[in-house]
Amino acid sequence: MRNLLFILTLILGSLVACTSSIKDKQTDSFRAYLDFSDRADQFEGGIRMIPIQTPSGEFNVWTKRVGNNPKMKVLLLHGGPGMTHELYSCFDGFFPAEGIEYIYYDQLGSYYSDQPEDQSLWTIERFVDEVEQVRIALDMDADNFYLFGQSWGGILAMEYALKHQDKLKGLVISNMMASLDAYEKYAKEVLGPQMPAEVFAEIMEIEEKEDFDNPRYEELLLEHHYQYHVLRMPLAEWPEAVMRSLKHVNPNVYVFMQGHSEFGITAGASLKGWDRREDLKSISVPTLVIGAGHDTMDPAHMEWMAGEVQKGRYLFCPDGSHLSQYDDQQVFFKGLIKFIKDVDQGRI
């Protein structure tokens, strides 16, 4: 009996020691993740203004790093164009617990970065060059660099991959189709008719007259479109961070590149006719495409995109819309985190 008690005591002691060791390692890991002591951006808690060289001179763009992970660094490309990083505040609720480093970033022209008025700067090619300069400044490479782009940021992410995929470890295209003509067709032929017929007819009439300053246009969109396809919540319940980003949008960049319409790209806007459907097959880096059941973008098209790239995976958020990081949050983050870790472990 004494021998049995002695053996049980030894086993229990070993289990306690093992558990303690695991907790110590976890504590050390999170301490390292949160440690700013050897970082140049410690002074402002991860914030850094990065100088960008452009054909019109040097400007600064705002970034903020969260966490330290030499293997998993995610640069977040916001939509718009001309929106802000604030759309991704909810990433704070998920990525730190997984030890994933991520970088908030306001593109040139957006609220926290410099806002030059030179319209020659608002081209896809120059934005791609800007992202590359940010990557270099933040010392990211194919061993750790994941690029996440949503909406317009998804266009920018695709364009960056087509030019610089040798610098990428993983690519995420969220809530963005590979053709703006296909997007316009989906908006007008599928989403628009879901509204009451008289409402959609009035919206189309305003668009045909280019009467976009008419307050009725925004009123109709807010009531019948935005809270069903942009963010599936009553407007009064939209997250504060989203409202802040909308307040901070730069209309000069948005209108020049996208135009006024919410059912396509306005004639004369610089993104008009953008189409990369035929080029997707050349993307060989592991790629996650995220679509949503109630998105402004066609989820079937985005599933097709995942099959076109060489190492694609599709994440479908059935209850989500264009900002599915909020309205189908658990599905969105579970799938996104799994993709990042699967790429890191060589499983895709």
Automatic annotation (TrEMBL):
<comment type="similarity">
    <text>Belongs to the peptidase S33 family.</text>
</comment>
<dbReference type="InterPro" id="IPR050266">
    <property type="entry name" value="AB_hydrolase_sf"/>
</dbReference>
<dbReference type="InterPro" id="IPR000073">
    <property type="entry name" value="AB_hydrolase_1"/>
</dbReference>
<dbReference type="InterPro" id="IPR002410">
    <property type="entry name" value="Peptidase_S33"/>
</dbReference>
<protein>
    <submittedName>
        <fullName>Proline iminopeptidase</fullName>
    </submittedName>
</protein>
<feature type="active site">
    <location>
        <position position="295"/>
    </location>
</feature>
<feature type="active site" description="Proton donor">
    <location>
        <position position="322"/>
    </location>
</feature>
<dbReference type="Pfam" id="PF00561">
    <property type="entry name" value="Abhydrolase_1"/>
</dbReference>
<keyword id="KW-0732">Signal</keyword>
<dbReference type="InterPro" id="IPR005945">
    <property type="entry name" value="Pro_imino_pep"/>
</dbReference>
<dbReference type="InterPro" id="IPR029058">
    <property type="entry name" value="AB_hydrolase_fold"/>
</dbReference>
<dbReference type="GO" id="GO:0006508">
    <property type="term" value="P:proteolysis"/>
</dbReference>
<keyword id="KW-0378">Hydrolase</keyword>
<feature type="signal peptide">
    <location>
        <begin position="1"/>
        <end position="19"/>
    </location>
</feature>
<feature type="active site" description="Nucleophile">
    <location>
        <position position="151"/>
    </location>
</feature>
<dbReference type="GO" id="GO:0008233">
    <property type="term" value="F:peptidase activity"/>
</dbReference>
<feature type="domain" description="AB hydrolase-1">
    <location>
        <begin position="74"/>
        <end position="328"/>
    </location>
</feature>
